[in-house]
Specification:
By secondary structure, this protein is mainly alpha-helical. The protein is built from nine helices and no strands.
Length: 180
């Protein structure tokens, strides 16, 4: 039995659930935070979405069937929560997700949690020009170095579609960065 399977057993047992959940948070909070942060950009928003993600994981752990890795299931929840958050913000201010993303990136320089230099800021601006799915695929592959197989589990799509999205995203970012 691997450590993920053992943790899952503990999560599903009422007597060990809370301790196992604290361990789960310790194991995954940083990776999930940065995955979410790359989507929502803002630190405060990322914290809120991360909290919502863990609440959903806790409430739904008994429904997890084990068809995928626990990690993939949690990433799917985090991704969906981040997309829901972005859509809700866009609807609230009556702007498109792309416009919100662009505004948020433009405000990064005043974000005390952003430690990037000019090159990183330009890359974030280039990423913000991509459609949401391409942003997601690019961030998961480029920054998180996830395997296409894991990404396919998380996003519930084919590896081929992900490879195509990543390739297109890279071409668009290159064009943005070189001014072509």
């Amino acid at each position: 039995m691997n450590s993920e399977d053992f943790l899952l057993l503990q999560l599903k047992s009422p007597s060990t659930r809370e301790k196992a959940f604290r361990e789960l948070i310790t194991l995954y909070k940083e990776r999930l935070y940065w995955h979410i942060r790359k989507m929502v950009i803002s630190h405060d928003d990322a914290d809120d979405v991360l909290q919502n993600t863990f609440i959903k994981v806790f409430k739904n752990i008994d429904k997890f069937k084990g068809d995928s890795k626990l990690f993939s299931w949690m990433y799917r929840i985090a991704t969906n929560e981040a997309i829901t958050h972005l859509n809700k913000n866009a609807k609230h201010v009556q702007m498109s997700n792309e416009e919100i993303q662009s505004n948020t990136v433009n405000n990064l320089t005043s974000d005390v949690y952003f430690e990037g230099n000019d090159i990183q800021l330009k890359l974030q601006k280039a990423i913000a020009t991509l459609p949401q799915k391409q942003q997601l695929v690019f961030n998961m592959k480029y920054f998180e170095d996830l395997k296409y197989k894991d990404m396919a589990d998380i996003l519930e799509t084919s590896e081929g579609a992900l490879k195509a999205s990543y390739h297109i995203a890279v071409k668009k970012i290159e064009a943005y960065l070189t001014g072509n």
